[in-house]
Amino acid sequence: MVREISCEDVARMIKTSAPLTVIDVREAWEVEICAINGAVHIPLGDIAQRIDEIDTGKPVAVLCHHGVRSRHAAMFLMSRGVQDVFNIVGGIDLWAIDIAPEMARYE
């Protein structure tokens, strides 16, 4: 079962420089519209080939648009032995609503 983490908790961790790796699994065109500063962009389709780029020495929080692709990515990471992995509930869309209302949104 994939553990979940709220946008608020991720924002708090980023703000306080708590150890956290944010992986954004959206497509490049989505990241061009809006993104979380410091997030590592690895599209879902590339995650298997680029898993070595993920710093698993700290918690990993996975992000997509609404939370579906990120859940799949988190399940994949767990199947590869990554233990401290979370799905960011609501994705970048909820992030834009709750954390960064100035952020561009898309459908």
TrEMBL record:
Keyword line: Transferase
Gene Ontology molecular-function annotations: transferase activity
Gene3D superfamilies named among the record's database cross-references: Rhodanese-like domain
Residue ranges of coiled coil: none
Source superkingdom: Bacteria
Entry keyword annotation includes DNA repair: no
Positions of the Rhodanese domain: 16-104
Pfam family, one: Rhodanese
Protein name as it appears in the record: Sulfurtransferase
Biological source species: Thalassospira mesophila
Lineage: Bacteria, Pseudomonadati, Pseudomonadota, Alphaproteobacteria, Rhodospirillales
